[in-house]
């Protein structure tokens, strides 16, 4: 019904709201969501070069690696690009909490024959700090986005002094107001549909956080800066709807998971290819913070949210050996399969011959080459403009 | 930003999708959500007469009362109207489950000095049955809507033979397919943002059910019949967004809670007037089935979802005396305050002088006369058309 269509190039300028396009100096108001573990420099560069805003997730990178990934992007494009960082406060070590978590996971350790006393791998999710700020000052990407709030004012000031536009995620109106008051140039309104980590930083109940349809217009009414809709958007219809709600752009994650530049593993890709609308949930089991992913065995057995999971990011430590062991046997039972609720919509873009191919893919018979992130960005933009144009023709005729 | 505007009457026909309008013979593709305990014949008649589809919630009425309410509507309008029924299977009595529930509530019974052994009031939520089917055959409303699935094929056949168009709620794509395959004329895609009871009937995990932004396009792709978007929609922007997603109409509840015909109590009204976007949650405490309402004391203290709440509708029994006692003291601590996530948006329509008045209302200083359901219906439609028109002008110019 909404297969990619070719719109004339001049249509690219006919967005109903140009505030984000103008603010970020991009051609297409689509931000590729930063997805740690799912995208690197190649996808970010491809999306930016196609006119959208590519994002490099830096939370799991060392400063040196962030710098080198950024340089890879710069070899491919000079267009605006986004570096994304986490702003959590690392938790104090709580041996008792850690003990409860290990005890909850102990039966799985036995099942896989893993020594429960073995040393755990270092959990590599660092908050934005002086070292990363130096990377930013060195690289001077056009845009920086933050998740889990904002860094200390001193660091934020340095980022702005480096000339970067600053975006950050809000899961509630209160968070949006906070971000706008602290100098964000645009707000990502992250509806509960979104895949991956909730950006929550002001401590509201996760189950009370609104969906994107309710959140976006309330945020638009509450702040002066442009609003970017995120969550539940994976095709041209969702993008058109976001503009109807008052957003100036969208941030899209799941749809890019099947692009050729995606670095997700085969197990994640296979799970996506058969997923349905009602198969994701928010879970804190993989990191300690609520994040949306496809429901798998550990989420079903422990329950997706457990008070025994220690605070972000430490929960990831004791899960890691189970994930490694299970993946070796071809199982994603302990793998975080981050994805949003609109994931199945993204399959329409996943290969060029669309429906017939995706049916075959579902039956596992063959796979067409995946769509490139650049082609996907253009297809999403064209579909959105075509959708807006069709609405317009019908209303105005 | 989106205050009610007057559009010329001929604009009423310029909806981007006329499938629902034509199917139901209505002028405006807005269904007033049936809200047991919040609306009766007066609101349904007003909305229908204004060109939308008014709904009479019958689940808490006796057949005689349903018939007399329907006649009240018919004295006010001959236009299409909807009678709404529940289709749950009444649970077997489980004394042990009931005992656990009473035991959980025992401290509150003590607090209010209520005898824990007193007989509980009858819980009056009956599923659609032969007696109600006779009412339908007698009244022949143009439209019937069902919640919690569909009645037995024999009853559904009689409803269709009576000439009624049949609508029903789906919370997932699987439920939408089921409803379409069983003869529904249109599907209400109920996003998780919606206030009141989730229409779930095929047993998916409640926390896995999608928001309306993700659900609507997936349902549109899955069924041939028109799709009605419900949840998170309370102004013209949300209606325009629903059409962008492929819906042919919307069902709106919360926005009507502040209309003059609303029969909610003062405590519910007062809670609405100060509510925020992040203050609702799904709870099973008030009925045994998950439903969205403003978070109040019992939801905070027990947690909004409890395995100890017995199955729908029996949980309501033991809560009732607490609600009565608390309300006597002016407290809504035990009152179900059903509302959706877009509730705060509805305040823009709540009085004619809009912003200034609503600020005063929030401060509790004075109250303007509430908007009528007819005026609200027209304002929502005009705002939606105006929003669609603005998008169109910008895209096409």
Write a structural description:
The structure is a homodimer of 397-residue chains. With 397 residues, chain A is α/β, with parallel strands linked by helices. Chain A is built from 15 helices and eleven strands. The longest helix of chain A has 24 residues, at 373-396. Mean pLDDT of chain A is 91; it is low at 1-12 and 352-363.
Major sheet: arrangement of strands of chain A: 1-9-8-6-5-4-3-2
Report helical residue fraction of chain A.
40-55%
From N to C, what is the helix and strand string of chain A? HEHEHEHHEHEHEEHEHEHEEHHHHH
- The multimeric state of the shown protein is homodimer
Nearest-integer average pLDDT of chain A:
91
Which short descriptors sum up this protein?
homodimer, 397 residues, alpha/beta, eight-stranded parallel beta sheet, three-stranded antiparallel beta sheet, 12% strand, disordered N terminus
Quick rundown:
2 copies of one chain form a homodimer. Chain A has 397 residues and is of the alpha/beta class. Chain A contains 15 helices and 11 strands.
Give the topology.
2 copies of one chain form a homodimer.
Chain A: H1 19-24, E1 30-32, H2 41-49, E2 54-57, H3 63-76, E3 81-86, H4 95-111, H5 130-139, E4 143-147, H6 153-161, E5 165-170, H7 173-181, E6 186-190, E7 196-197, H8 212-222, E8 227-230, H9 236-244, E9 249-252, H10 266-273, E10 280-283, E11 291-294, H11 297-302, H12 315-328, H13 343-346, H14 354-362, H15 373-396
Parallel strand pairs in A: 1-9, 2-3, 3-4, 4-5, 5-6, 6-8, 8-9
Antiparallel strand pairs in A: 7-11, 10-11
């Amino acid at each position: 019904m909404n297969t990619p269509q070719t719109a004339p190039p001049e249509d690219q300028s006919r967005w109903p709201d140009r505030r984000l396009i103008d603010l970020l100096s991009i051609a297409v108001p689509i931000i590729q969501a930063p997805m740690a573990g799912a995208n690197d420099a190649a996808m970010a560069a491809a999306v930016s070069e196609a006119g959208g805003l590519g994002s490099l997730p830096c939370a799991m990178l060392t400063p040196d690696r962030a710098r080198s990934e950024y340089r890879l992007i710069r070899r491919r494009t000079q267009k605006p690009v986004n570096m994304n960082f986490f702003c959590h406060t690392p938790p104090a070590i709580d041996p008792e909490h850690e003990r409860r978590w290990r005890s909850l996971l102990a039966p799985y350790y036995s099942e896989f024959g893993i020594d429960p006393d073995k040393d755990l791998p270092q959990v590599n999710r660092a908050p934005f700090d002086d070292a990363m700020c130096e990377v930013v000052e060195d690289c001077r990407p056009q845009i920086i986005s933050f998740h889990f709030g904002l860094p200390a004012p001193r660091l934020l000031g340095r980022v702005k002094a480096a000339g970067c536009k600053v975006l950050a995620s809000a899961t509630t109106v209160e968070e949006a107001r906070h971000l706008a008051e602290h100098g964000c140039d645009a707000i990502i309104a992250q509806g509960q549909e979104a895949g991956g980590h909730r950006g929550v930083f002001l401590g509201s109940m996760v189950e009370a956080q609104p969906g994107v349809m309710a959140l976006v217009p309330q945020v638009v009414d509450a702040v002066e800066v442009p609003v970017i809709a995120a969550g539940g958007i994976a095709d041209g219809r969702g993008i058109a709807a976001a503009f109807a709600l008052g957003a100036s752009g969208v941030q899209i994650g799941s749809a890019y998971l099947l692009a050729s530049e995606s670095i997700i593993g085969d197990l994640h890709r296979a799970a996506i290819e058969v997923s349905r609308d009602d198969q994701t949930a928010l879970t804190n089991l993989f990191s300690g913070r609520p994040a949306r992913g496809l429901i798998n065995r550990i989420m079903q057995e422990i329950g997706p949210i457990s008070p025994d999971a220690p605070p972000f990011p430490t929960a990831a430590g004791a899960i890691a050996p189970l994930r490694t062991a299970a993946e070796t046997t071809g199982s994603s039972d302990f793998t975080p399969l981050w994805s949003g609720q609109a994931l199945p919509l993204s399959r329409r873009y996943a290969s060029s011959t669309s429906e017939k191919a995706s049916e075959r893919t579902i039956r596992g018979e063959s796979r067409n080459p995946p769509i490139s992130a650049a082609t996907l960005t253009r297809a999403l933009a064209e579909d959105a403009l075509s959708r807006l144009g069709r609405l317009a023709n019908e209303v105005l005729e």
